[in-house]
Amino acid sequence: MKSSGAALAHLARDFAAFGGTRLFVAIALMVAGTLAEGVGILLLVPAILGVLAPASGGAGLLPMLPRGTSLSSILALFALLVAIRSVIVLAREHLTSRLQVGFVEAKRLRLADRLTRVAWARIAELSHARIVQAMSVEIHQVGIAVNSLMAATAAAVIAAGMVLTAMAVAPLAALIAFAITGLSYLAMRRMLGRIRRLGESITNRHFGMTENAIDFLASLKVVAAERTGPAWLGQQRLLSDDAIADRVAFASIHARARELSVCLTAVAAIALVGTGVAIGFSAASLFALLLVLSRMSGPLSEVQRGLQQLIHSLPAHERLRALEEILRPARAAPASGVIPSDTTALWFENVSFSRGRDILRDFSIRIPSGALVGIAGPSGVGKTTLLDLMAGILDPDAGQIRRGRTDPTRFANDLAYVGQDPVLGGRTLRESLSWSSNAEAFEMEKALCIVGAAALLQRMGGIDAPLGERGAMISGGERQRVGLARALLRRPRLLLLDEALNALDADSERDILATLASLNPRPTIVIVAHRPEAFALCGRLIHLSQQHPPQIEERDHISHPTCEVSA
Which structural domain, as residue segments, surrounds residue 378? Predict the structure, then answer.
């Protein structure tokens, strides 16, 4: 973890890059508001003393006022400055709010964008809890950090303006008072390291609770059946107790710093009065200094509070930056100059790939458009890995994979991938089926019928029926049917099925595969399965083994009746 200074510089640099000209406008508004307030204070002193002590000489604080300016004129000018300051402050608050919210949401969207574009192999190494933590807790903490940064900056500008005002009235007395007040910041500096460590600890506690909760939800049915909920709750309680202890410690440090600042401000006021009496300040000057000092107490407290909260939130920003670096998209590989023919859907040329062991070595195959190809072999030999290479979510160590006449983006639009446990996004059939297509309701119903889900559609009462969280209200086989229907709605040219029908009985699987084989036009279909019956309609079978290189079995040509569908 970087030092607080380096982490703060990163946050400030990121925010400045996002804010651009608008940030400079916001700072200019802070300065203008402070200037209006300082002049207002200098107007207020002669106005008050003009009533209480007409001979006190308060008008001398603003020599630019014409001699003999009436009290009513001073009050009118003061009211005008208050109104101008209010307009400036409202404009500043509106602009800074937009900057803060915009920065946080831009961070969230940039992270989401990188999640969609990063290589699969890189994102697969991350836990879901890490992503959820970043998109929720850490983004929220970054929002707090930016809010604290802007609040502390605005308060610091106000405090600086008050310092300049006081120095203009009585430099020596102002220096004595501000030196005493500044002692609280020397003491607070020793606290910042402890605050930073508490911020890191709380962020880690939250990650542990998020990870624990995701594991719990993933095994909710097993937990309910085995009654292991209390054990999970015990883990959450331990993490929660630790987080509470850290937060209480942070609140205690904050309270001590605040009270120290209040005490030193009171001492500064006493020293100011004593110095003024000893040196012989005028009543106007002494009153002005006390007024400035009292007005500064609020901004100084805000600077202190904002700085503490900012340091406390920096670890979340650093974790977010680290995740963004992990998810930084790699440079696209240069496109091959050799383009296969229109009739070739996939072309592996001397492809090698290893993951702890050689899965493919100098593997070559051409798969024509519309072919039905199976991939067979025992568990762990790399069947899914070969499918992932075909899909383009893994890159080969050597060799080239060419996919028709399309560029990578177009190829992805022409592909559909169905796994053995399809994730059903949304809460209804309609929302799940529309996740990756813009299909109309009648097209969704037709696709469901093609995959044998007409009974499901009738039982649930239509496509707007609720599915539950990730399809929890339907069976595993029905989820696979819905996942396949969603794939067909993409109108793919390449359909990859990774154990996509293994939750169905053999007869249902055979019927669905026969329907897919009869589609016109038929996509290129590659099937990974364990049941030999799933390959009955395949014209080519790739056998994978840990002991031998891949074997390609050319099977007798099988003709199928075709039926034209629009799904």
Answer: 344-564
